[in-house]
């Protein structure tokens, strides 16, 4: 009976350890995406510079930026007056066969 309780305690410990480990990996990945996005869009750093600062490959930087877009960490907003101007421009192009 004691052996079963010890085994169950150990299993629960492992389950918690694995869950926390996965969360740490997720937190690290999310943090890396946010840092990469910040350096790229706010600091105007090149992908190569970011890779050197973070100690990762340039390809990893590219993938992190893409993943950050897909996950919503990076969001773009276009001002509405630009949108109206672009629509007008497109209408004029179509109307005048430019």
Helix/strand order, N-terminal first: HHHH
Rounded to the nearest angstrom, the radius of gyration is 24 Å
Q: Mind describing the biggest β-sheet?
A: none
Mean pLDDT: 82
Give the number of DSSP strands. Answer: 0
If helices are DSSP runs of H or I spanning 4 or more residues, what is the number of helices? 4
The share of residues in helices is over 70%
Low-confidence runs = none
In what range is the share of β-strand residues?
under 5%
Briefly note the structural class of the backbone: mainly alpha
| Oligomerization state | single chain
Please state the overall shape, judged from the principal axes of the Cα atoms.
Answer: elongated
- From the N-terminal CA to the C-terminal CA, the straight-line distance is 84 Å
Kindly describe this structure.
- It is a single chain.
- The chain has 98 residues and is mainly α.
- It contains four helices and no strands.
- Helix 1 packs across helix 3.
- The protein starts with a helix and ends with a helix.
- The model has no long low-confidence stretch (mean pLDDT 82).
Descriptive labels:
98 residues, mainly alpha, elongated
């Amino acid at each position: 009976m004691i052996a079963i309780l010890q085994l169950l305690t150990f299993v629960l410990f492992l389950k918690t350890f694995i869950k926390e480990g996965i969360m740490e990996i997720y937190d690290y990945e999310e943090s890396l995406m946010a840092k990469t996005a910040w350096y790229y869009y706010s600091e105007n750093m090149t992908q190569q510079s970011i890779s050197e600062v973070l100690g990762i490959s340039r390809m990893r930087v590219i993938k992190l930026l893409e993943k950050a877009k897909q996950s919503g960490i990076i969001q773009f907003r276009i001002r509405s007056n630009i949108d109206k101007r672009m629509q007008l421009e497109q209408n004029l192009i179509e109307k005048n066969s430019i």
